[in-house]
Amino acid sequence: MIHDPTDRISLHLHYRRVRVWAGDTLIADTRSAIELRETGYPPRQYLPREDVDMSYLNRTDTATHCPFKGDANYYAISLYNETLADAAWSYEAPFAALMDIRGRLSFDTAKVVERIGDE
């Protein structure tokens, strides 16, 4: 069942610089993020794929379903001698109300460092 996210989720365009680091490796750098704010969860940045170094990401078999966003596919980040399992996710076909995040990537901030600002 598809639920209307109107009172639960909002999307916010911003042009602040968002960088994602896995250890000492810069994975993403953008000024075109969309911030998703969802009741009960911390804000999440959704980055355009063209601003993510996809050579470090490998799709995993993990998939989850959100009744407000749809089905998410997950990616591991593979570094030189370490793999961060399911460290990023993407909604390839989100529900209509959230099409703006389609194909963008968000990162698990418990596994990577996300810096937001103009520095």
UniProtKB/TrEMBL annotation:
Coiled-coil regions listed in the entry: none
Residues annotated as domain DUF427: 18-108
Protein name per the record: DUF427 domain-containing protein
Species whose genome carries this gene: Modicisalibacter luteus
Classification lineage: Bacteria, Pseudomonadati, Pseudomonadota, Gammaproteobacteria, Oceanospirillales
